[in-house]
Specification:
Length: 272
């Protein structure tokens, strides 16, 4: 079994994959956005808990009052993230419930049940670009699309096993496949991070080559353990919940399809 340096994979993509002009503009220009959005006012603990539980990624601004400069900074980035739910609260009981003692902006993730806090001292040195970068880089969902910004959050996650679906988003089967992939992700929540790699993006070819896959083998699943760099791949003709579940269960139990395949190849060559 060959080992793949997953940390190097992350860093390679961080430094070689540039943000598209569209993504860069979204992160840098808080004045541009697809329409006005306002954070939801959370006035009590129950409302806050329900709000956090209702979405995959939630960002809440916890402020002692609404006159502090951080509030306008918080409002300025809301419209840039359509897949993130934003809330705001000044209720002392809500701040206490989330162990917040000062002005804090917190990001909550369902995928690994994590709360990431920006404290007052962090916020004071931030502008809209830096705050957007913090949100974008930690914006992990049940299925996270692979890109240079998401790499940071994936690298910092406490979940050490990552599953990648490598598939072209332009494929007619993409939408149905993604739906089944998301359903499978729910079965391994907190155990495995599910990632989508769009094979139609040229820069993502580096990721595909790391797993020694050919274009003719796509779509495919690739899974790896970041702690010891153990990995495996499974070319597939159809993305099904059963295929994904069996592949993940097998990996968790120590089964490696790639080892079997390599063993068969060696045996075949010896026979020839």
């Amino acid at each position: 079994m060959g080992a793949m340096p997953s940390r190097c994979l992350y860093l390679l993509c961080l430094f070689t994959c540039k943000l598209s002009p569209e993504v860069a503009a979204e992160v840098q220009e808080s004045s541009d956005g697809p329409g006005a959005r306002e954070p939801v006012r959370l006035t009590d603990v129950q409302a806050a808990m329900e709000f956090v539980a209702a979405a995959e990624v939630v960002v809440i601004g916890f402020f002692q009052d609404l006159e502090v400069p951080a509030v306008s900074l918080f409002h300025s980035v809301v419209k840039n993230f359509q897949d993130v739910s934003f809330g705001i609260s000044t209720a002392s009981e809500v701040l206490a419930h989330y162990s917040v003692t000062g002005n804090t902006i917190s990001l909550f993730r369902l995928v690994d049940n994590k709360q990431l806090d920006l404290k007052s001292e962090d916020i004071e040195s931030m502008d809209a670009t830096k705050l957007s970068h913090f949100i974008q880089s930690n914006n992990l969902h049940l299925v996270t699309e692979y890109n240079p910004m998401a790499v940071i959050g994936l690298f910092n996650s406490m979940i050490p096993i990552h599953l990648l679906l490598m598939m072209n988003k332009a494929s007619p089967e993409y939408e149905a496949s993604l739906h089944r992939y998301k359903e499978a992700a729910k079965l391994f929540q907190g155990k495995i991070l599910f990632i989508l790699v769009d094979t139609g993006v040229k820069q993502n070819g580096k990721v595909i080559s790391f797993f020694k896959l050919k274009k003719s083998q796509l779509p495919a699943l690739a899974i790896y353990q970041t702690l010891d760099d153990v990995w495996d791949t499974l070319p597939i003709t159809e993305v099904s919940i059963e295929h994904v579940q069996n592949f993940c269960d097998g990996f968790l139990k120590g089964k490696r399809l790639r080892e079997n395949h390599e063993s068969e190849e060696k045996t075949s060559k010896m026979e020839l």
